[in-house]
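Troubleshooting: if your tokenizer reports a length mismatch, compare your output against this known-good record of 466 residues.
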Amino acid sequence: MRRWLLAAGLVGAAPSAGLVSGDGIVHAEGVSHSSVLHVDYRATATDSSELAPVDVVEVSGLLDDILVDEIEQALERATTNGSQAVVLQLNSRASVVSEDRFVELLTQVADASIPIGVWVGPSGSRAYGAPAQLLAVADVTAMAPGARIGYTGTLKKVGGAAVSFGAADDLLTNGSMGFLEAREQKVLRFSTDDRGVPVLRNMLFALDGLTVNGKQLDTVVDDLDDNGQVVRKATTTRFFKLGLVPRLLHTVASPASAFLLISAGLALLIFELFTAGIGVAGLVGAVCTLLASIGMSYVPINGTGLVLLLLAMVAFAVDVQVGVPRLWTGVGLVLYIISSFILFEPVGAHVMRPSWITLVACIGSIALTFIVGMPSMTRTRFATPTIGRDWLIGREGVAVGAINPNGTVKIDGAEWRARTNRATPLADAQSLRVVAIDGVTLEVEPLEGGARDYREMRKSGDVGSE
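Known-good structure output:
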């Protein structure tokens, strides 16, 4: 990175011989522009395109098996594709892989034949829990201003010895720190004196000139602009992200996504269960439930919370079949709320429960669905195919089990869903008559002893008085 200064005859010059501004431009002191312009810097400077590239791998979200596989593939790929270093752009609050798998990852990073850098960025990023320990084994580490690291928990052992952040081990175990404190505690290892590494380009500057495993990194060259100032040009950066399928799996493997998908999927399946045929709702519900199941397999699940979630859906289904929200809808809503808070087990100091925004959105949507939407849609959908069933009105049959107010009846050998007319209960095997049809639900009354409408009573009374 100091090729231009060397060419200008400033070999061995102290750092004060040049000032580095925030825009990455070096301003030489004590050298006139005229003397600088007579230097044939182009003969000694190397174009940035001629430098070996640096691979950047984005590590964002929960550190799961999908991301671990991507990191391992990146390390293997970098050793064969001409890269001079790999930078992990880290923003992760917890690891959900097994301890053995994570220790294996730490070992691969520590023993990699190619230099490994870890940059916690951009601003606002977090490296908490086990993922923060990647900084302890990487060759070059840096943070963006506004980023934080910490809550590492128990430090893992690599090669028989626990990884270490030096004097900051105790501070980082149960706490966190920003860039300034991390630099003061000598947690970070990078070559610049900047107040943080705000963008990835600065991370390439931080790599330049460092010697790792006997190999000196060369990631920056200097060039002159039209004003005679030195401009630092970084090497080519190659970005690698998850492919389409791994990205989808990584997305659904988050508590928020999994909870949204399982809620929507089960609700749609319940709706489709009580409608005629299999439609789009059933297909979408099945896909959502499948994706949620895959995602939940990557994160720690509380068994009790999962059982409560399923029981909540069963309770909702009891009232959906009659098209009226009643006690069971309230029971289902209570069970659903409880399950939403305990469904995901915490990982270390990180609470895996979905955010409050996600919880409020899910609980509110489920409440509206099963109190207002689902009953209305069910009644509407069942109300249309009544043509051709008028012949059932007036037919007689028997109750299959008690009907109070809902149950099953048998008419001409076929069983139908039914409810009592005018709240007159029916006993098992009691004879009955169909008086009306609501969709595919028959309204029935006993042949004898049924409640009589006051208008019929009035008519009967009038006839008797005459």
